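QA checklist item 7 of 12: single-chain prediction sanity check.
[x] sequence parsed
[x] length recorded as 592
[x] structure emitted
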Amino acid sequence: MITDQDRKTFVLKGIGVSPGIVIGKAYLFDPSDIQFSFYKLENPALIPKEVQRFKNALKESERQLLEIRENLKKTKINEPLYVLDVHILILKDKKFVSRTTKYIQRLGINAEWAVRMMLDRYKKIFDGVEDTYIRGRISDIQYVTQRVLRNLAGRKRETIWEIGDGVIVIAQDISPADTAQMKMEKVIGFATDIGGWTSHTAIVARSMEIPAVAGLDNITSMVHTTDVVIVDGTAGVVIVNPYPEVLQRYEEKRLHYDAVKEEYLKDAKLPAVTLDKYPVQIGGNIEFIEEIKTAVAHGAEYIGLYRTEFIYINSKHLPTEEDHFNNYSQVVEAKELLWSTIRTFDLGGDKFPSNQKPIRELNPQMGLRAIRFCLKEIGLFKTQLRAIWRASAIGKVKILFPMISGVEEIREAKRLLKETRDELVAEGIKVAAKMEIGAMIEVPSAVVIADKLAEEVDFFSIGTNDLIQYALAIDRANEHMTYLYEPLHPAVLRLLKRVVDVAHEANIRVAMCGEMAGDPMCCLILLGMELDELSMSHLAIPRIKRIIRQSTLKEAKSLLKKAMSFGAASDVRAYVQGYMIQHFPREFQKED
C-alpha cells in the first residue's frame, strides 16, 4: 500500500495539447493489463480451430467497436467517430487478416502470438516513416491488436472509477474508443507518455475542451492511481503530488483561467479591431466539418484553412468527385461564415491515399508532396478541383495551393483550375463566375520571389509551421530540436515582413494560417506587420481577439521595430515576452 510518505513531488514538462488548468486525482489507465501466452500448436489438427478462434475475436472486436460507435453518436463528441471507423477498417484489412492467418498456419503458433508478430511487423514499417502524423498512427494498430488479444483471452476490461470525481487519466496514449467507454463526466484532464498536437488524445481533449499534456515520456511509470496531479495544458506542465503552497497557487491560477475564459467567450464574436481602428479578420482552421460550429461559437468569421487531405486518409477508397463535393458543400453553406478557404490536398511524402503505395524517399517532407504531388497525379487533382468549383455555386469559396515554391507551379495549377471550370460549364453545371486563388507561403524560395508570385494570385496565406522549419533547418518533430524552433527568430520575422510588404505593394491580401497566428505572444508582432487575416485553432480565437481589441496599431509597429533590431532569437523572445506580460498582465499571468 502506498502511503502519503511514499508520494514524491515532481514536475514533468511535455507538450500542451489542450489548454486550461485542472487539479484532481490520477487514474492510471493501462489498456494492456492482461498477460498473454504465446505457444506452439503441437497438433496440426488444431490449426483450423486456431484460425477460427482468431476470426471470432475479429468479429467480436468489430461488434464492440460498432456498439461504441452507436453510443458515441448519441453524444456531441463527433471527432472520435472518424478514428473508430479507421479501427474498424484495420480489423477488416485483408492483409492484416491474411498475414496473421498465415502466421498461424505456417508457423503452427497460437493466435495471440500471430497477432503480436503482425504488430511488430507494422511497428518496423511505421518506425521508418519520417512524417510525425503518419508515424503516430501506429497507435491505431496497437489499439486494435490489444482489443483482438483481449477478446482472444476471453476477458473484458473493467474500468474502475471509484476514486471519486475529478479524475485525471494518466496513460501511455488514449484511443477515442477508450474515452467512449470512460465515464467522461468524471474525467477532467489527460496526461500521456506519447503523442503531440495531432495525437488522438489531443484531438479528443480539444473537442471536449479538457486540459491535456502529451509527450511526457514516462509519466505512467512515475504516477500511482489516487496521486494528486495538476495538469497545466496551457504551459505543458504536469505536477504530481504538489506541495500545499504550489497547490494553492495553481488553484488560484485555475480560477483565474476559468474566469478569463468565460470573459473571452462573452466577447468572442466582436470584431478584432484595434483602438485606433485597424481591423484584422480572424478565421478558424478546420480538418473536419463538425468543427465549424465550435469555430463559429469561438468567434471565427470565416474558415481560413480547410485541410482536405483527411478526406483521403480516412477513406478506404479514393474519394469520388461527389465525396469531395458533399464535404465542401457542407462547409461553404454555413451562413455564419463570410467565406471558406479550401486548401487543395497536401498529400505525398508520407501521406498517401489509403489505396496507393507510398513512394520511398530519403526526405519525404521535401519530396513529392502537396502541389508537386497534385501536378503529378492530375486525375486526382482535377477531381478535387471540379468539386471545389461546384461548391463555389453554393457559397463563397477561396482556393489555396500548398507548398508553392515557384511561378511555374502556380501557373500550372491555375491552368488546371481554369480547365476544370471550362469542363463544368460545358456540361451545364453551375459554378461561380470567379474564385479567389491563393498561394501558401511556406517555402523560403516563395518568400524570395514573393513579388513574382503576387502577380499570379489574389492572396497569400503564410504557413508558418513549415516556413519556420525550412528557414531554420529544424525538424519541428524532433524532440531534441524543439528548443531551436522559434517563431520570433529574427530571420523568421524578416521573412514574414517581406511577404506582407510585397503583398501589400501588389495590392493583394495576406493571411497567416500557421500555429504562429494563434500564439498570443506573437499577436502584436503580427499586428505590427499589418497582416490582413489570422486563422487559427478555435480555442485561440477569443484570446487573440481580446489582445487586438486592447491594442493600437501604432504600439504594435513600435514593438515590431524594436523586436527586429535584435540579432539573437533569445533577445527577441525575452523582450517581447516582457512587453506582453507588462501590457497584458491578465492575459499573460506570470509563472511564480
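[x] summary fact logged: Residues 1-5, 157-162, 349-362 have pLDDT under 50 and may be disordered.
[ ] second reviewer sign-off
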